[in-house]
Amino acid sequence: MSISIEFPDGSKKPFDDGVNVLDVAKSISTSLGKKAIAGKFNGELVDLDRPLKQDGKLAILTNQDADALVVLNDTAAFILAAVLKQTYPKMHFGEGHSTADGFFYDTDNADGQVTVNDLSTLKEKMMQLIKANGEIKRVLVSKDTLLKEFAGDPYKESLINAQAGVEVPAFQLGDFIDFGYRALLKKAGEAKVFDLLSVAGAYWQGKSSNPMLQRIYGTAFYKQADLDADLKRRSEIKERDHRTLGRELDLFFVDPKVGAGLPYWMPNGATIRRTIERYIIDREVAAGYEHVYTPVLANLDLYKQSGHWDHYRDDMFPPMDMGDGEMLELRPMNCPSHIQIYQHHLRSYRELPIRIAELGMMHRYEKSGALSGLQRVREMTLNDGHTFVRPDQIQDEFKNILKLMMSVYDDFDITDYTFRLSYRDPQNTEKYFDDDEMWNKSQAMLKGAMDDLGLDYYEAEGEAAFYGPKLDVQTKTALGNDETLSTIQLDFMMPEKFHLVYTGEDGEEHRPVMIHRGVISTMERFIAYLTEIYKGAFPTWLAPTQVDIIPVNLDLHVKYAETIQKQLLAEGIRVKIDKRNEKMGYKIREAQTQKIPYTLVVGDQEVEDATVSVRPYSADKPEKEDLNVFLDSVVAEVHNYSRTGKKNKAEAKLDK
């Protein structure tokens, strides 16, 4: 019996039933057989020993293919597990496999935790195993055999029992056996370029109710130069990581006694947040928005009517039963609340557009394993806004929102971003509001608006909200992750669901269009993003402490320092005097470590001349400056958002 294999170029060839991937590669060419590391059969990653028993499409993979690093890093995780089992006989094993940027293995060691100091020894043992260049074989093993192999290991026993069928595909290297991998390299020696990076905690299967395991991270490449570049990138990431900087600069913390994903804002972080909140409120009020406050709790029926309960309940906290039939819900979104504001009065066509905005606190049920610093939290404050417009106002309002967004980016010196039009997935429409006409109409409107504005964009299916398409402003964080800075969403569904109307010029009721928009996302995520792109060195207008004054002598120079402080405070500058009984050099170094924009040193000469010795952050040497000149310059810098002579790109791009 034969099967038909189709190759990426469209050609087909018959093979015996049960032929493995490697033999297919060799049949194409001897060189491909030597270069092959795995295959992709009907879209599934398969190892070279995998027998093929049905017709299908097959791509032979080499180390030049996109999935090659997946195979390599899975192999490195497998080899790490082999060494761990050899080194720690009593260790229990969870799961291990490749990630987007490396590999990991979860473990639970009864003999004591693995530390970062142990990684070099483990790496040496992995290299010994790799140099031996043993063959990694694909084997089919009965569940009973595997259960005996991992007897007493509750995590592996759970994984084995969850496997379908009576046999489990596994991989073997010498006496070591493990399972759960899609494809591994045939020779251990092919995984010689790797490094072990760190040790961290991770809940078993990502659930906070499960035991905390120890996760060992690593990464692997085919070329040493690629590994070196990756390690350099990771070093840069470590310097920018907002979680590390948040701790060093005393911006925020999370206390497990209170709960994961619930950050406390320390005075420094709170100052940054308050500055941004005041800024964005002022910008929105100037743009015609009316700011409101709405409750963080609402009747569950409100979210049933909006559709959030049907489409979003897995991300919502459980409802609170008040005992009298009332069910209250922590809000996951602000839009139903703003709809209530709109509905509170009769509306005329003359009033539209009506722009409602709020710094609205929301709660979302994020899994413990997904939480990360300020980027993924369970309580967040969204810079949210909703505009209610007539259909003929959509184009102009869309342009106004974009202009506001891009102007805000200018003030924060955010320049690297792209526009993504996010549509529903036409092959998976059940998770979206069921109205084909609405989707086609609103998607065409968004596309037409962007075309009219002459802005470059790309399109992405499956990224829309459940109630409508949206424009996402995408950027890369300093850590290389995709981040959505802002969104604009056209919504014809909510006005229908809530029966929103306005009285038209003809005296009849008409349905408004609702535009959802968030200029800077949540305060938490935005500050995490800024912390990383600034490396913690916030521009002067955002810095928690903008000026640090250091008197040379606490007895002789404090009075002059206090005079300077009073003048700066009168201009709204955040300033402190370092009156600690420490050496001046220590105080200066600490001011630099805290990334304070300006450090002023005042001594006898400065008092006599009415000057200051100014050391900007990261400057090698201080410079003497007239006090009034410094005061004027720092005030101007703060009022101009720490910019000098920058062109407003929003105006340039949109006012064509």
From TrEMBL:
Query: Domain of life here?
Result: Bacteria
| Record-annotated TGS domain positions | 1-62
Give the stretches traversing the membrane: none
Q: Which is a Pfam family this sequence falls into? A: HGTP_anticodon
Q: Which cofactor does it need?
A: Zn(2+)
Q: Which keywords does this chain's UniProt record carry?
A: Aminoacyl-tRNA synthetase, ATP-binding, Cytoplasm, Ligase, Metal-binding, Nucleotide-binding, Protein biosynthesis, RNA-binding, tRNA-binding, Zinc
| Keyword NADP tagged | no
What SMART domains does the record point to? tRNA_SAD
Cross-referenced CDD domains: TGS_ThrRS, ThrRS_anticodon, ThrRS_core
Answer whether the UniProt record assigns the keyword Metal-binding to this protein. yes
Q: Which GO terms describe its molecular function?
A: ATP binding; catalytic activity, acting on a protein; metal ion binding; threonine-tRNA ligase activity; transferase activity; tRNA binding
What SUPFAM superfamilies does the record point to? Class II aaRS ABD-related, Class II aaRS and biotin synthetases, TGS-like, ThrRS/AlaRS common domain
Its family? Answer: Belongs to the class-II aminoacyl-tRNA synthetase family.
Kindly provide the name given to this protein in its UniProt entry: Threonine--tRNA ligase
Question: What is the native source organism of this protein?
Answer: Agrilactobacillus composti DSM 18527 = JCM 14202
Please name the gene that encodes this protein: thrS
